[in-house]
Amino acid sequence: MDVRRLAMIVPLLLTLLLAHPVPGQERLSSLAQVFAKGPILQDRNDDGVVDFIALAIVASGDATATDAAILTDIGARLGFETMGLDLPLLFLDTENALPPAPCILLVGNRNRWVQKLASEGRLDLAALGPGEGVIALLPSALEGRDALVIAGRDEEGLQEAGRFFAARMPYLWRVGKET
User: Fold this and answer.
1) Which candidate in 32, 75, 85, 111 could, as Cys together with 60 as Cys, close a disulfide (CB 3.0–4.6 Å)?
2) CATH number of 23-167
3) What burial class does residue 38 get, using C-beta atoms within 10 Å of its C-beta: 0-12 exposed, 13-18 middle, 19+ buried?
4) What is the pLDDT of residues 13-58, one digit of tens each?
5) Nearest Cα to 107, choosing from 57, 142, 64?
């Protein structure tokens, strides 16, 4: 095979390989994908039913009652969305390393990872007003892994963001209607 032919084939093969990600390596491209079958809610045995959650939830070691309520709601929603999951899903920010998951969900204003992302300028909590919260997708934010963040300027904002995430995502207004 001559060099010119090889020079044409190699880019084509690379394009084909990169265009079709290996299952389990797909990444979130928007918040709309969080509760859809795909990068987080996976069908590992190809039977058409979600049976694996590729997500770890990290909460503050000194979680508030608001954090606990949000974590309960998120756990219920994830349980509703799948026919199987591996436990534990919840880890504390007091552990030395992040849990082994392709996507990390950070919950709470006191969460040290949330505070780290804010101090690095990746998350702007100061721009929030009283009672406002944020749900953010930060690609490759934690050791090359995607981070989902639920936080607020205060406890009320955190509570609203957490409720919205667990109950309404991906819909903005009416559950079940495209908006």
Assistant:
1) 111
2) 3.30.379.10
3) middle
4) 333 333 333 444 688 899 999 999 999 999 999 999 999 999 999 9
5) 57
